[in-house]
Amino acid sequence: MKKNIALFIFSFLLFSLINLPAGAADEFAYSQKITRLIKGLQADGFIVQEGDYRMIDILKLCSDGWLKYCFGNNAGFPYLAYLLPPAPGQKPSRGQKPPVGFNPGDPKNFPANIDFMPPGITYKLRPDEAILFIGKTPPPAKYFSYRSYVGFVANKFGKDYSDVYTLDTGEGGVYHRVFASLGDPINHLNQFTSGTRKGESGNPFNKETVVVTSAHKGVYQRVRKALKEAGIPFSIVNEDIIPLSMVNMGLQKGKDTFLVLTRAALWEDESAGRAFLEAPKKTCRVFRLTPQKILNEDPYAVPKLKPRGNGVSEFKIIPKAAADLETLRRAILEKYGSPDYQIKELHTTIWLPDGFVGIADDLDVLAEDRDTTYLKTDDFQLKSDDDFVIVYGVNHEKTGKAVYCNVSFYGQELLNGVAGSNSSKFTGSARKYFPRNHPGADFYYQVKFARKKSTPDDESIVVETSTGNPKGKAYGVDHNKDAFIAFRSYIEKPNQVGPAHFELIYDRAILFTKK
Length: 515
Prior knowledge:
Blueprint: H1 2-18, H2 32-43, E1 46-50, E2 52-56, H3 58-63, E3 79-83, E4 130-136, E5 141-154, E6 166-168, E7 174-181, E8 186-187, E9 208-214, H4 217-229, E10 237-241, E11 258-267, H5 270-278, E12 284-291, H6 314-317, H7 321-336, E13 341-346, E14 348-350, H8 355-361, E15 372-377, E16 388-394, E17 404-411, E18 416-422, E19 444-450, E20 461-462, E21 483-490, E22 508-514
Parallel strand pairs: 9-10, 19-20
Antiparallel strand pairs: 1-12, 2-3, 3-11, 4-9, 4-12, 5-7, 5-8, 5-11, 6-7, 13-22, 14-15, 15-21, 16-19, 16-22, 17-18, 17-21
Helix pairs in contact: 2-4
């Protein structure tokens, strides 16, 4: 009888453990494997400091005065960032705790990182350091990615930076923005996870993963060895290379700063996505790894970039696109045009080049991502509450050129994305402009940006003003201020990178200004 009771209790407990809700069981990022890993890294001569991982509300930071601009944020889509402690022997910046073993009186201490909010989001790195991310990928979504960037770089001798934003850090040097990606992103189509081992097909969402960011091949191999000894399989480990020859690493005055961002878009379950964003450290951890003894450089070759495009234009996919777009254009003008309005058709061009171009040409490329294209219209102004913009074009998800695409409304002064729409809402939006049962109508979309809704069921996307906005100044764009529309198309699946610009039919916009 006692044996039966004991067996019943054991079975009940085992069943309960197996069926614990997500988060209740021992999370990978906080498991004994990670404890063993940290001990193993320390035994191998690494100083291990834990950082932070959190959602970055760019519009709020700008509204509160911590940021001068919003980096061309993708309206409605969040970002997560690593926040690292200072390196050993480096002074803390405002809001940071000192690094391990810090002696404030040591004259050999390195300058603090740039005073940028939140503290630790940009940081200098020694050429022999590594950043270690351990945890779960985001829950199911249309897209996610991880990408390292070079952030602020020192002003070049003799170059005029009067037309760009610069930072004088005192003993650290004078810097300007570049914010350029250092290669192709690790995304949901290629990431090594426990559901997609070695990048094979499977389910990459809410799965265990490791990302090692470093410019040092030997350090990466040592971290990989420690992971293996801790029981973490290499099949979930992703190598994020910093190409040393393209950047200026070190802790001294004038050395580059770096950052790592995570993007995610269009959750299957909005509540699950929001929970992940609001508390990512429940399932994820970030560590700064510094060898106790400074190592000689052991750089990687500059990584190859995935080629964009496949030679198939959207004009090939939709043979009647030119005629259809003219039909759509004329129908929009007939619907909204009147003697009371001045009409201007805005020109669309490439907005941002790839990160390597930004590095080579010393340009601010706003933390771009090679998983997408960046297009924008001419600048324009909404001068009254009666003005509006009609955006229309090809649904690039429908043509297979993107896993999703979106359109955003920006203020030019703050580069703040304040309103937008995406391809999950595009289907059917242009049907009313075509003859009934037109076979290609769903290849197209139409979106209206306006200051107000004309009727309760009006599907216009409202663009709020900045002045007096209760959420903050960066959540709106005022009348008579320069604005623009931007377009993104994320990942052409076969290439696992953004589509080629020349294979897209560019999105269009028409401005209607009340006379």
